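Render this sequence as a predicted structure.
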Amino acid sequence: MNGKAFVFRINQIFVLPEGIGPVYSEINEFRHKRSLVIDIGSLNVNFQEFTNLIPSFQQMVTADLGVNLLRSKISDTLTSRYGTTVSDLDVERLLRGDKYLYLNGERQEDSKEIVEKLISTHVKEIFNHARSRKISFNNTEVHFVGGGSMLFRDFILKQYPAAIIHTDAQFSNVLSFLQILEAKQNG
């Protein structure tokens, strides 16, 4: 930085599962519960079950169902339907906006239905993948974290109304990692 060389020495490494969500940053909320954390990221979706704060490694699953896969499906579908290239940036605006595609300033009325159907199908695939790996949703609090959970919020709640979608979804894992590292450092 600014022409100065830096040397970092790593003394310890802690390997932590990616999708732990708020389990350890909100430890009292999870202490006496069975919880499933579903972390929807750009590249993949992580499923991790916890019982009384203890992760079940048999129920740790990763699926290639991240947001980028859906972006590609939307781009391909709309490109094919409208005969024009729909870029990743266009799809990002669709996902974060009103779900309509605008071409030459004109709103394509049927595009919203197409996009919403693709999102709904993708969310259904996430739930089905978990079930196909014998992950149970019975007697379990289901927590969604990761940026994808915020994008898919309404569609997740339509599929699973009892889902808890965290407001700090993008930082949920990091906050738990920080809590674990502080405990390790001080303990």
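Summary. The radius of gyration is 19 Å. The chain is about 40% helix and 20% strand.
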